[in-house]
Structures are given as structure tokens and as C-alpha cells.
Design a protein that fits this description.
By secondary structure, the protein is an alpha+beta fold. It contains 10 helices and 13 strands.
């Protein structure tokens, strides 16, 4: 789907906002703080069903009762998102039908590139997990569902661990769920890590024009087999009671980048890191296109100011066949 126009009401700082898009590239220009990123956030929500930045309550303009997003496409279709702040309820209207969640068939792949992504290599494990979980969830609805169920079970187990006089059998059902969905998450992450590693060095060299090598590493201490995962959770029970949270599982895993067989963080230069992240974005778009058989929408949030001319040209060239929406503080 190619977006034709957007209308938003009471979304972040925007009381009312309307914009028409070109079929290829559209640039939104404005000073910092004027709400450019909010427009990209609204687009993402209309295409994916939720924000990539915040909760609905955080998005709703202060003092207002609802927010609304309307996306119109060049093929004549339309998606309307309405959030009722008083009821804390969100509805999606696709054509003439309403849903409590955006239907799977109406979700469209989106690649978001923010300035903060350029700091991904040195980011915390939690930040990196969040990044790759969002990416992998777009690739697979099954992964998204496993992650959702895992996080719900983790929350319940952690709440129980804060209770006094807790017995091991009281968390057993949550252990079973964590083991089941944790091994599913683990398997998918390993599979996609292998897939990324097959092409990341070649993609990087196409940007940097050199012979350096890049490796993407998934670091986990989690057992691959569901039965072993369950046993480890049981062995950690006494320790977890003292800590008040679950110390073992895929929610503690990490993703790392290696540059010429050394950890990229602290080894690769600023320019080399930017080329690695560009390579990752190109791979992300390529894997989404391969999986969904459509070209993803590209949202570039003020990243041109962070890239030199060579990398800017590379970015434009790689996404020349996608619809691209760019925010910037100045005209290109």
C-alpha cells in the first residue's frame, strides 16, 4: 500500500494535521520540537497497529478525550485509528469494518530509521532486545505471539516472586509457559542471526567499499531444549525469590556486533559504526520484502544530518524503489 495522505487529531502536539504524500519520496521539514516525528509515529501506528515509541495514554494530547489517525492510500483503501482516552480503548476501521486490533492482513511492513539507532551497537542489552524484537515481530506473527505470551508469563512469575512464603509449585505453571515460549523465541532469534550473518559483511562492504568483516552475534545462556529450560527455571527458584525477579531466560539475552573479529563497540570508528547500522537497515528492509513479498515503507527520522554525503547517497540509492518519508530540519 502506498500512502496518499494522512489526517491526525489530538496526536501528541498536533491538534489537527494533514499531509499529502508523493508515491516515492516525501520530506517533512521543520524545526526540532515541531512534531515531525509524531507524524511518522502516527503513520507507523496506522500500518502496524501500535506506536514504536509510547503507549496510547502518552500519545493523547493533554486535555483531550481522544486521538484519531486516518490514512488514505493510492489504491482507494483507508485505515482509521481512534483511541478513546476515557475508556482506554482503541478501534481500527479498515474500509467499513471495525476491529479491536489491526487485522494481520492489513498490517504493512515498515522500516523506521531514527538517530538513536546509530547508537545501537553500544546500547544496553534491553535496548537491543527491544530493537530486534520489533524487527523480528514484523517478520513473523508467530514470533510476535510467542513474545507477547512470554512477557505476560514473565510478569506473572515476577509478581509472585515478591510474595512471602512462596512455594515452588505456585510458579510451576508460569515456568512451563516460559519454557515453551522461551525456546520458541530462542530458536527464531538463532535462525535469523544466522540469516543476517550470511549477508552482513557483503552488505557492509558495499557501503564502506573496503575489506572489513562484520559479524552479528546472539548471546544467550538459555537452554535450547524446553525440558532443560524448565529445569533451569526450577533450579533458580530460591535465588529468584531473593532477587524478586526471574534471573534466567531469553529476556536477559543480548545481541552484539563484531568488527574484524573484535567487539565493534570501542573498536570500530564512528564512520564504520554508521556503515554497520546502514547495512543492518538494508538487511532489515530486504528480509521484510522477502518474507512479505512487498516493499516496506521507509520512515527516516532526521537521520540525514547524522550521515556524511557518501552514506546519504547510499541510503537514497538503496531505497529508490520504496516509498520513503523523511523528516529533516532543513531542505535536502
Amino acid at each position: 500500500m502506498i500512502i496518499k495522505e494522512i489526517k491526525i487529531n489530538n496526536f501528541r502536539s498536533h491538534k489537527e494535521y494533514f499531509l499529502k504524500f508523493n508515491k516515492k519520496t516525501t520530506m517533512i521539514v521543520g524545526e526540532n520540537g515541531c512534531g515531525k516525528t509524531s507524524v511518522l509515529e502516527a503513520i507507523y501506528e496506522g500500518l502496524r497497529g501500535k506506536s514504536f515509541k509510547a503507549t496510547d495514554k502518552d500519545i493523547l494530547k493533554r486535555g483531550e478525550e481522544f486521538y484519531r489517525i486516518e490514512l488514505d492510500y493510492y489504491d482507494g483503501e483507508k485505515t482509521i485509528v481512534v483511541y478513546d482516552g476515557e475508556k482506554n480503548k482503541k478501534t481500527f476501521q479498515v474500509q467499513d469494518k471495525k476491529f479491536g486490533r489491526l487485522p494481520k492482513k492489513n498490517k504493512y511492513p515498515v522500516v523506521v530509521f531514527e538517530p538513536d539507532d546509530l547508537n545501537l551497537i553500544g546500547a544496553s542489552p534491553n535496548h537491543k532486545r527491544t530493537y530486534f524484537d520489533r524487527f523480528f515481530s514484523q517478520l513473523s506473527e508467530s514470533y510476535s505471539n510467542s513474545l507477547l505470551k512470554y512477557n505476560k508469563a514473565l510478569k506473572q512469575r515476577n509478581e509472585l516472586l515478591k510474595r512471602d512464603f512462596l512455594k515452588a509449585e505456585e510458579v510451576f505453571s508460569w515456568n512451563v509457559m516460559l519454557a515453551k515460549y522461551g525456546t520458541e523465541i530462542l530458536s527464531f532469534r538463532k535462525n535469523k542471526t544466522d540469516e543476517i550473518n550470511k549477508i552482513i559483511t557483503e552488505t557492509y562492504r558495499g557501503i564502506a567499499d573496503n575489506k572489513d568483516a562484520v559479524q552479528f552475534v546472539y548471546t544467550t545462556h538459555t537452554e535450547a531444549q524446553e525440558s532443560e529450560y524448565l529445569q533451569q527455571l526450577e533450579r533458580c527458584f530460591e535465588k529468584d525469590k531473593i532477587l524478586g525477579h526471574t534471573s534466567f531466560g531469553v529476556h536477559r539475552d543480548d545481541f552484539e556486533f563484531r568488527f574484524n573479529e573484535k567487539e565493534a563497540d570501542g573498536t570500530a570508528s564512528r564512520g564504520e559504526i554508521r556503515s554497520i547500522i546502514l547495512a543492518l537497515k538494508f538487511i532489515e528492509a530486504g528480509m521484510l520484502e522477502k518474507e512479505k513479498n512487498i516493499k516496506p515503507l521507509i520512515l527516516l527520522d532526521d537521520v540525514f544530518s547524522e550521515l556524511d554525503e557518501k552514506r546519504q547517497k547510499c541510503l537514497v540509492r538503496n531505497f529508490k524503489d520504496n516509498q520513503v518519508i523523511i523528516t529533516s530540519v532543513k531542505e535536502a
